[in-house]
Request: fold
Amino acid sequence: MIAAPPAEPPRFSESERLARLRLIRSENVGPVTFASLIRRFGSAEAAIDALPDLAARGGSRRPLKIATLKVAEVEMATATRLGARFVTIGEADYPQTLRLSQTPPPVLAIMGDASVLKRPAVAIVGARNASAAGTRLTQMFARELGEAGHAVVSGLARGIDTAAHEASLPTGTIGVFAGGLDKPYPAENRPLMRRIVDGGGCLVTEMPFGWEPRAADFPRRNRVVVALAAGVLVVEAAMRSGSLISARLAGELGRLVFAVPGSPLDIRAAGTNALLKDGATLVTETADILQALSPLDPRMPARLTDDMLREADDEAFEEPSHAGRDRILRALGAAPTAVDDILAHSGAELGELQLVLLELDLAGRLERHAGGRVSLLS
Reply:
C-alpha cells in the first residue's frame, strides 16, 4: 500500500493572516488561548468576532482590548520595510520542532534565510561573563556542529551566546530575540545581527515590532531557543542563571541536555556541574554531542495543520449548564491545580471545562502554570 503524501501546509488569505496577527496581539490572548480559539471557531477572523462575548461570559468588567486592523497593517508594513516577514503556525516556513513543542508561538517575525530553520539544530547557551576557556570551547563546539550539518541556536546575549553565533556564521546560525526585531538587545551586538542575516542565518522573535525586551521576556525567548533545537549545550553557567532555566525547559520539552564540566572553584561552572549531577550528558568534545544525537530520527513529523489544531476530542467546547459552570468555578482557586483534578472535583466534561477556561483566560481571570496547571486570579 502506497502511503499518502504529507498534507500541504495551508495557504492563508491575506485577511486571515492579518486576523491572526490581530488575534495574538489582542489582550489576554496567548499561545494556548490562540490555539483554543482557532480550534473552537476555525479561523482567526471568526475568533476575533467572538472575543467580546467570551470575555464577558468569563466575568470581564471592561471591554477587551482587541488589536485593530490598522495596528496589524502597520506592523506588517514595518516588517516589510525592515526586510522581515511574519510566519504563522501551520505555514510551510514555520519551524517544525517549534510547532511540535508545548505552547508554540502562533506568529513569528523572521528576518534572514528561513531555510536554516528546517535544519537539525543544537542550542548553545551559557554565561554572559564567559571565561577565555569557555569562549574557546564554545567556538569549537559551534564550528564543528555546523560542519556536521547542524544549525546553531542561541539568544544573542553577551559571552557564550555571542561566541556561538560568531563561530557558526559560515554554516548557519539562528538568533532569537527577547523583544521586537527592531529592538535588538544588547545594542553592541547589532553588527553581529546584521552579519547573521547577510550570511545566510536568520533572526526570530514572537514579540511585536517596537517591543522593548523586559526581564519577563527572556525566559520566553529561552523557551523558543530550546524548542528550536534537538539538544541544548550549556558551556558555563552560574547557579540561578538563565542558562539553567534553559536546561530546565529542555527537560520539560524532551530535549537532550549537555553540559561542560568545570572547576569547582569557578562560580561559572557551578551550574554546569549541578546539571551533570542531575543527569545531563557530560561533553568534552563535539563527538559526544553528535553521538548522543545520532539515534534520533532525523525525519521530521508531518506538518501540523490547522485541521490538526482543530482535532480535539469530540467533547471539545461543550456549553456547561449554569450549575456545571458554578462547580467548575468552585473547583478553581488561587493554588495551581491540574486539569484532571478540576474535572474529578467538579464532575464536568472536558469540553465544558475547556470552554470555561477559555472564557476566564480572555477575561484576565486565569493564570497558567507549568505542567498545564491553572489557577484563578482574584
